[in-house]
Amino acid sequence: MTLLRRFLASAILGLLLVPAVSAANEPPKSPVFPAWDMKNPLAEEKLTAEQLKELEEGEIITFARPKPKGWDGAHVVAVGLVKAPVEKIYEVVMDCTGQPRYTPHLEECKNTYSPGTDPATATTYKQYQKLKFGFGFISKEVTYTNSMFAIRPWVSGWVLDKGDIAQSIGYWRVIPYKDGANLLLYDVYSDPGMAVPDFIQEALTKSDLPNTVAAFREEILRRQENGK
């Protein structure tokens, strides 16, 4: 869920350019996550009154975040308002095997756990994903494995272990709002490893992330309506 159309666009451009990633400039593998202040989460996200108004009207907003110095790629956040309990939202966020049914481009998602670990309470595990992109007669398949962590029922995050991209770090986060509604925040840093300008990757990411947030919101509301 971290790449979507931007990988295909980057791959097409990359056919015309020299690959940018090497051992010398590949981003470090250690995770970089912002601090989570659950006591005052909206202040941390710095959402403006205008942005909150857009969210309340059903819009999904996006904004860029800074990257560590020397990193390529894009760091973008998408946020949507979901009128559902946090537990119902987190259920969909954690629904790895079901997500290919409603998530754009996701073909397969599979979690693996350490022996003796209960998946319902696991805080760390591995996740394999396969995505497929198509543009006219061009088709591209991408696979990767992430190291996952969970702060139930608020956060689900990942760091790339290995795969067909240079780097991916991010998280889903549920932020309590008001009147029983919650904000669903999707924070993604990714570098597909192609010699594509960062501003193009950022624009493609801003275009794509709302599609995933919208798909998750639709599934959450569908389950809530059906009582599942």
Largest sheet: 8 strands, antiparallel
Average of per-residue pLDDT values: 81
Which word captures the global form?
Answer: globular
| Cα gyration radius (Å) | 17 Å
Helix content: 25-40%
What is the rounded distance between the termini? 23 Å
Note poorly predicted spans: 7-43
Structural class: alpha+beta
Helical element count? 5
The total count of strands amounts to 8
Q: How much of the residues is beta strand, in percent?
A: 25-35%
* Strands side by side in the biggest sheet: 1-2-8-7-6-5-4-3
Query: What's the helix-strand series?
Result: HHHEEHEEEEEEH
Question: Could you give the topology of this structure?
Answer:
Layout: H1 5-14, H2 41-45, H3 49-56, E1 61-64, E2 74-82, H4 86-93, E3 106-112, E4 124-135, E5 138-151, E6 155-163, E7 167-176, E8 182-191, H5 198-226
Antiparallel strand pairs: 1-2, 2-8, 3-4, 4-5, 5-6, 6-7, 7-8
Helix pairs in contact: 1-5, 4-5
